[in-house]
Amino acid sequence: MIALIGLVTLTLVAVAAIATVMATNLFVASMWFGIFSLLMASNFFILDAADVALTEAAVGAGVSTVLFMGALALTGEKEAIRSRVSWFPMAVLGVLALALFVATFQQPMLGDPMAPVHQHVAPWYLEQTPNLINIPNVVTAILASFRGYDTLGEVIVIFTAGIGVLSVLSFKPKRRQTISSEALAAKVRGVQHHSILRVVGKLVIPLLMLFALVVQFHGKYTPGGGFSAGALFAAAVMLYGILEGADRSAKAMPEKVMLRLAAFGATLYTSVGLVCMLLGGAFLDYNVLWPDPVVGQYFGILLVEFGVGLTVTTVLVMIFNAFANRPTY
Amino acid sequence: MTLLGLYNYWIFILLLVVGLYAVLVKGNYVKRMIGLGIFQSAVFLLYITMDKVEGGTGPIMQGVPVPGQIYANPIPQVLILTAIVVGIAVTALGLALAIRIREEYGSIEESDIRRLDHES
Amino acid sequence: MMEMIVDGLSWLLLAGGGFFVLVGGVGVIRMPDLYTRIHAASVTETLGTMLILIGLMLHSGWELATFKLLAILVFLLFTGPVSSYALGNTALLGGLKPELGSQDPSKEGRDL
User: Fold this and answer.
1) Domain total for chain B?
2) Contact assignment for A10 to B7 by CB distance below 8 Å
3) Which 3-state string (H, E, C) describes chain A?
4) Within a domain: residue B39?
5) Closest Cα partner for B30 from B91, B111, B106?
6) CA–CA distance, B96 with B119 (Å, rounded to integer)
7) What is d(CA A210, CA A316) in angstroms, rounded to the nearest whole number?
8) Do C82 and A197 lie within an 8 Å CB cutoff?
9) pLDDT computed for residue C112 by the predictor
10) Domain that holds residue B38
11) Above 80 in pLDDT, residue A220?
């Protein structure tokens, strides 16, 4: 029965993707992209990947749509329609699709327990996690402890992307601005005249932040962890910025503080690894943090996930404030 | 679930081609970023397809471990969890570049930008 | 016996919720203009989800999942109508005029 639901959801995903590319008004395209991401998240849930579904729903259907809207307010919403159809890219894509299609017949069927991907390291992780780390969520155990190096690299990539956005947008052209952001904010402060939206939105924001904290610190017991929690907290701040005006959210979360907190998150992760080295173990070997190795793993994962959540939150909030506060030149 | 067979892979190919079409053919830079996002999601779908095991549940061990309980493969989920957030950060960087291009050239269509580059 | 009643009631509520979701979907396709479509979609987001979630709550008994479903129901009842309101208000402020029926007296004899 669940196979039928999976079939329908996959088909809807394909339809949403085609509709996204065919829309010429870019606001419509970004709305379709949000719908596509939400259907993808439900598809991930049907395939038993709960952590990934939570993160994709928060990032794709929440944060990503707001960032696209912020960019479209500064660049314009209409796409020029090309009259002639170019045959060469279509031919290349057709050949690629055909080659991949022929290759899929060698793949194992969906859900086959004898597939090669289930044979080598995965059974070892599933057996050893209760002995070595003893937390229920195996995905968090692998992310923060067994494969901690990869996660460190990813955190630094996110931090670098945040710095990149700030440095690209820090250049302000010398041309005269059409409307300064303060004047625009004085005319229309957020959605100030929509009292229903403001009241209900303000009720939702503390609940969203509380849920983000639950997801962050319960990442060991339920699906969650630093990445999903960071996206949810950033979504709460973006909601505040949309309701009250972007200048207020820039004042509440100033850029300098956010930059330092993002650096602190990545530094926390690295310093946990260095402390492990100073205490006699290898880099990021949490066993030495406490006399009992399992408790040491617990503390190591807690601190590392906190660093990840901090960096993801502050980078996404920085990017939103940079987009939303840029005056139109 | 094996009823679905290879359908997941075919949808992955369709999404890949749709995303690549938007990146190659469309001239608008924001549309290209959207196409890149569809391309990324197609790759995520391929990885998460690999983690499903027939009769398994999510890889969360509730309470006392039951012998003989099948779990889904946790490794592809770990890889994709970080890839999603990195993808949005890179998309934001691409959009910031599109905003700067718009401020310098006045448009984000590739044909206009080529024309303005040729004229100057 | 009590179990059978609760089970039957939950299936009835789930079927009813599914019917109203279908009604909302048909309405969105068949209605002529944005405001009537919002009206049709709001049936799905309030009555449809309420019946489905209450049916699921009866089905799961007195577990933790019941309270989570209740929290989801309260949250959806808060935010669903507000988003319909925001959509309608923005459309009106953006200049989209609702399609009114024709007031032409020569068509008065027609069956509407």
Assistant:
1) 1
2) yes
3) CHHHHHHHHHHHHHHHHHHHHHCCEHHHHHHHHHHHHHHHHHHHHHCCCHHHHHHHHHHHHHHHHHHHHHHHHHHCCECCCCCCCCHHHHHHHHHHHHHHHHHHCCCCCCECCCCHHHCCCHHHHHHHHHHHCCCCEHHHHHHHHHCHHHHHHHHHHHHHHHHHHHHHHCCCCCCCCCECHHHHHHHCCCCCCCHHHHHHHHHHHHHHHHHHHHHHHCCCCCCCCHHHHHHHHHHHHHHHHHHHCHHHHHHHCCHHHHHHHHHHHHHHHHHHHHHHHHCCCCCCCHHHHCCCHHHHHHHHHHHHHHHHHHHHHHHHHHHHHHHHCCCEC
4) yes
5) B91
6) 25
7) 18
8) yes
9) 43
10) 7-53+72-119
11) yes
Answer yes or no: is C11 within a domain. yes
Q: Could you tell me the residue range of the domain that residue C29 belongs to?
A: 2-95
The tally of CA atoms less than 13 A away on the side-chain side of residue C90 is 10
Residue A111 confidence (pLDDT): 76
Which residues of chain A does C82 touch, with a Cβ-Cβ cutoff of 8 Å?
Answer: 196-197, 200
Q: Say if residues A233 and A224 touch (Cβ distance below 8 Å).
A: no
In a domain? residue A132:
no
Does residue C75 lie within any of the structural domains? yes
DSSP symbol at B111: H
Count of structural domains within chain C:
1
Tokens of B44: 């995520």
Query: Is B12 within the bounds of a domain?
Result: yes
Q: Per-residue pLDDT for B3 more than 70?
A: no
Q: Does the residue B59 lie in any domain?
A: no
CA gap A118, A101 in Å, rounded: 23
Q: Do B84 and A52 touch (CB under 8 A)?
A: yes
Q: In this structure, is residue C111 part of a structural domain?
A: no
State the nearest Cα–Cα gap between A271 and chain B, in angstroms. Answer: 20
pLDDT tens-digit readout, C62-111: 888 899 999 999 988 888 888 888 888 888 887 888 777 765 555 444 44
pLDDT > 70: percent of chain C:
89
Residue C104 lies in a domain: no
CA A246 to CA A70: how far, in whole Å? Answer: 11
Please give the C-alpha separations between residue A11 and each of A7, A32, A239, in angstroms, as whole numbers: 6, 15, 31
Number of independent structural domains in chain A: 1
CATH number, domain of B90, equals: 1.10.287.3510
Max distance between CA atoms of chain A, in angstroms, equals 71
CA pair distance C75, B55, nearest whole angstrom: 33
Report pTM. 0.90
Residue A107 lies in a domain: no
How far apart, in whole angstroms, are the C-alpha atoms of residue A255 and residue A65?
22
Residue in chain A nearest B102 by alpha carbon: A75
CB within 8 Å: A203 and C78: yes
Q: In this structure, is residue B37 part of a structural domain?
A: yes
Report if residue A13 sits inside a domain. Answer: no
CA pair distance C52, B3, nearest whole angstrom? 27
